[in-house]
């Protein structure tokens, strides 16, 4: 199971010498708000700096706590030992996450050298990358336990029910219950991305291909359009990524029917249902 982003511990700060406590207060990482106007490179660099601040704080806290124990300023009892062990675990997790983000930054910047503008915002880059990866994954489909994945996702999202003997499943874009035979399960982040990249989108270290958090249930026409790259599902840029929206990429289809009574275009600007049915991701 993927780890959540490590927290910063401070259980014993009040017991440290004044000098160490003041130093740690100066090192305390400030909360960061995601700015959607940052370019992709600026966003990733800011994330790396944030991770570096958190990592440095954990290291300094660990050293100060160890020093206080050696000087008998703090009794090294079971609780202190647990705090030290957890600090070591957090340090390791932060180091792994920092390595992963730096590697992703290098790969993305290499791709941008091939023609993507450096002024792209985060959402622009995500849409382009995910659209390409989704179409590639559809063309090069590998054997996958789709039936099992559909069941796991439906259970996780509570997206299935049975009424009077008929099975129904929820379409997260239409926002309605449909006959189960009309609903398919799609990967929000394409199968062709590696586990680190998938996990990064969801704020985890790594996620397996069949992780239920990466699934969504859709009407089969919408799922097929998603596979073709006609639409993309992208994270909404506000704080930590937990909300999603659907964007219509092929504007020539605005007035065409998705299914009887439903057109591709709903909102005048954003296209496919994005203003009416934002996709909610609950970790």
UniProtKB/TrEMBL annotation:
Limits of the HNH nuclease domain: 171-234
Which keywords does UniProt give here? Coiled coil
Coiled-coil portions: 70-97
Per the record, a Pfam family?
Answer: HNH_2
The molecule here is called HNH nuclease domain-containing protein
What is the organism field in this record?
Answer: Uncinocarpus reesii (strain UAMH 1704)
């Amino acid at each position: 199971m993927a780890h959540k982003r490590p927290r910063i511990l401070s259980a014993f700060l009040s017991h440290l010498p004044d000098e160490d406590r003041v130093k740690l207060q100066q090192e305390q990482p400030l909360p960061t708000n995601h700015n959607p106007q940052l370019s992709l490179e600026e966003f990733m660099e800011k994330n790396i700096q944030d991770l570096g601040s958190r990592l440095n704080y954990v290291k300094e806290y660990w050293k100060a706590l160890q020093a206080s124990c050696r000087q008998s300023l703090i009794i090294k009892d079971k609780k202190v030992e647990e705090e030290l062990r957890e600090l070591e675990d957090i340090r390791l997790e932060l180091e792994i996450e920092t390595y992963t983000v730096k590697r992703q930054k290098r790969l993305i910047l290499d791709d941008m050298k091939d023609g993507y503008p450096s002024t792209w915002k985060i959402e622009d880059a995500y849409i382009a990358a995910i659209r390409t990866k989704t179409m590639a994954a559809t063309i090069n489909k590998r054997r996958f336990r789709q039936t099992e994945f559909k069941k796991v996702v439906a259970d996780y999202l509570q997206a299935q029910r049975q009424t009077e003997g008929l099975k129904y499943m929820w379409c997260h874009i239409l926002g309605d219950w449909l006959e189960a035979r009309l609903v398919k399960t799609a990967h929000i982040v394409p199968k062709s991305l590696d586990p680190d990249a998938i996990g990064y989108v969801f704020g985890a270290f790594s996620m397996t291909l069949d992780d239920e958090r990466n699934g969504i249930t859709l009407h089969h026409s919408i799922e097929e359009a998603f596979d073709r790259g006609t639409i993309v599902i992208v994270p909404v840029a506000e704080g930590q990524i937990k909300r999603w929206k659907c964007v219509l990429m092929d504007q020539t289809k605005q007035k065409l029917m998705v299914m009887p009574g439903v057109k591709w275009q709903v909102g005048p600007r954003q296209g496919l249902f994005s203003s009416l049915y934002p996709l909610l991701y609950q970790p």
